Amino acid sequence: MIKKLTLCFFVLINHILFSQCPTGDVYLNSQSDVESFISNYGTCEVITGTVYIGDAIDISEVTAIKRIEGSLIISYSEITSVSNFSNLEFVGGDFIIDQSHLIGTIEGINKLQTVNGDFLIIGNYSVLKDIKGFNALEKIGGNFQVSEN
After folding, report:
1. pTM for this one?
2. Higher pLDDT, 71 or 19
3. H helices then E strands: how many in the chain?
4. Which among 49, 96, 115, 143 is least buried, having the fewest CB atoms inside 10 angstroms?
5. Residue 9, CB half-sphere, CA atoms under 13 Å: how many?
6. What is the SS3 assignment for 53?
């Protein structure tokens, strides 16, 4: 009995220590924000709020997220790729990429099944040439708009 309790204790502690996720919204607007997120929540799969991405940052190591209960908003960002969201399966709010002028190709988001809000890829004027993937996308609960790219 003691062995079983000890084993359960260590499994529970391991789960708590290595599966931590932030509560609420996540703002990745600077490289220090990204590094802090990776350091503290690098294995996090579920975000309970909205993920905001902006500015000139490298988000390539933010790869574990499978579910965002809020929205994914990439706005006025200078990121060059969103392929790190290859594990993303669910967005409870909006999926928005706008005014992000360095993304040449939107690809690699092949597991996303549901966007309960709007799906918008708008105003990415400079280099966006291709949108590939979204192979598993079955539901968009709001508006669908791809324009001014």
Report:
1. 0.85
2. 71
3. 2, 13
4. 143
5. 6
6. strand
